[in-house]
Amino acid sequence: MIKQKRIIQGLLLFVLIGMITFLSVHTADAANKNSNNITVSFNLLKDGDGHQFAKIYGFKEGVQAAIWTYFSDYYDISAGNTVLYEIGKTKDTYQFVENGKVITLDINTGDIVNTENLKKEKVVDVVDTEYSLSSGKAYTVLVGKEKSGNYVWQYQTEEYDSLQNGNVSYKSNKNTVYLFVAGKLYLLNKQTGKIRSKTKKYSNLVGVPSMTFDKKGNVYAIEMFGQHLYKFSSKGKEIWHSRNIEKAIGTGILADGPEIKTGPDAKRDVYCAFVDWTGADDKDARNVFFNRNTGKIVYHD
After folding, report:
1. Where are the beta strands (DSSP E) in 147-258?
2. 3 state SS of 28
3. Is the CB of residue 292 less than 8 Å from the CB of residue 214?
4. Would you say residue 97 lies in a domain?
5. Does residue 130 sit in helix, strand or coil?
6. Are residues 93 and 206 located together in one domain of the fold?
7. What is the DSSP-derived secondary structure letter of residue 215?
8. Strand-pair partners of 172
9. Which of the chain's ends, N or C, has fewer CB atoms near its CB within 10 Å?
10. Which of 274, 204, 200, 199 is nearest to 241 (CA)?
């Protein structure tokens, strides 16, 4: 009798363990299925004082309202000292970066499950995104990108007229990003995004379709209609300004905009900056050569 009782107890225990295992597996499967039905919306916003913040929403398939919401802190990014961007969704988590921290959220609840420092590598690229405002203004956000794809810094430009083409242009040389915004030249540290220096506003450099550098790191920048060519030192100091280029060579306004280059001039054996001038018709295309030390036109095609 006692033996039979123990056998029955053993069978009941076996059945109970099986039921618990079954429920656990199916509960996990259901959770994974729910995770697959959840999408995440990352929204980068700015308040009236120019501070940046993020709103992150979790949406479940078939449910109209968000099932969870995450609000970041507010940050002043004018000095390039913080960054907010998403990494993306995994099987059951969602990751993003906030102020140098990698934050992991439970994708079903929006709760923080892990926070760790962002591992920094060398910045190898700079990318940008333009944001338009209802006022007709716009601003651009530059971010420094590592080889692995992580973003380690972010810089937000001042606002400018979104209808005026070429307000923002930039190019990297060695460890500096040269950024033209609405007529001003900013020098940013490529590894940190922090401002090294900036110039006054040049009313005739509102649009800079092309810039380049010589072997000493000097910067050559031309405005969008090709009438003004500037040379700046590697530290942003103006060296010379060549004016009224169109008048000097007797051509009309460009159709596609000029492209500034630097290189040796075989005809005159001088190192010059020159403009590849592209007109409405190929027959109007020409090169204009400038002495690199003075900015005076040496000759043109």
Report:
1. 151-156, 160-161, 168-173, 176-181, 184-189, 195-198, 210-213, 219-222, 229-232, 238-242
2. helix
3. yes
4. yes
5. strand
6. no
7. T
8. 177
9. N
10. 204
Q: Helix count (H) and strand count (E) of the chain? A: 2, 23
Structure confidence at residue 289 (pLDDT): 77
Whether 183 and 296 map to the same domain: the answer is yes
Return the SS3 of 89. Answer: strand
Q: Which of 25, 26, 22 is nearest to 14 (CA)?
A: 22
Distance CA 14, CA 28 (A): 21
Predicted local distance difference test score (pLDDT) of residue 79? 55
pTM to 2 decimal places: 0.66
d(CA 212, CA 294): 17
Look up residue 201 and give its two tokens.
């506003």
Distance CA 3, CA 19 (A): 24
d(CA 52, CA 69): 17
The low-confidence residues of the chain, meaning pLDDT below 70, are 1-36, 77-82, 163-166, 244, 246-260, 262-286, 301
Kindly state the helix (H) or strand (E) to which residue 107 belongs, with its residue range.
none
For the chain, what's the residue count? 301
CATH code, domain with 75: 2.40.10
**What is the residue-averaged pLDDT of the chain?**
78
Q: Report the CATH number that the domain containing residue 275 is assigned in CATH.
A: 2.130.10.10
Residue 220 CA to residue 236 CA, distance in Å, equals 11
Please indicate, yes or no, whether residues 110 and 171 belong to a single structural domain of this protein: no
Q: Which two tokens stand for residue 98?
A: 């906030």
Nearest residue to 275 (alpha-carbon basis) of 232, 239, 245: 245
Q: Which residues pair with 263 in a beta bridge?
A: 272
